[in-house]
Amino acid sequence: MHDFLASGLSCLERARLADELGEARTRGRNLSRLRRLTAPERAALDQRERLAQARLSDHDAEHGCQP
Ligand SMILES: [Zn+2]
Questions:
Q1: Side-chain-side CA neighbours of residue 61 (13 Å)
Q2: Alpha carbon 4 to chain centroid distance?
Q3: What pLDDT does residue 66 have?
Q4: Which H/E stretch holds residue 31?
Q5: Angle 64-29-46 (CA atoms, 0-180°, nearest 5)?
Q6: I need a surface site. Which of 2, 21, 45, 51 has the fewest CB within 10 A?
Q7: From ligand 1's centre to the CA of 43, what distance in Å?
Q8: Residues of the chain with pLDDT under 50
């Protein structure tokens, strides 16, 4: 929660979604650095990131709270 406040974002829900997206990206990067991912693993990570991105975009469209 302190990170959200420090970031200056006014919408906590948006901050949460942005955090999820960042987490998905970081996880994919870290995993692929550790070892070679299988195609299904790669696809699952990509999908997770796409979903997080879509939720964030939807929120922006519906809520109009882009920073
Ligand atoms: Zn919002």
A1: 6
A2: 14
A3: 66
A4: helix 12-34
A5: 60
A6: 2
A7: 29
A8: 1-2, 4-7
| Interval between CA 53 and ligand 1 midpoint (Å) | 14
pLDDT of residue 55: 96
The rounded Å distance from CA 32 to ligand 1 centre is: 32
pLDDT score, position 65: 85
**CA 15/CA 56 separation, integer angstroms:** 9
| Encoded tokens for 32 | 């692929």
Quote the tokens at residue 2: 């302190």
Residues near ion ligand 1 (CB < 5 Å) are: 11, 14, 63, 65
Residue 55 neighbours by CB under 8 Å, 6+ apart? 17, 20
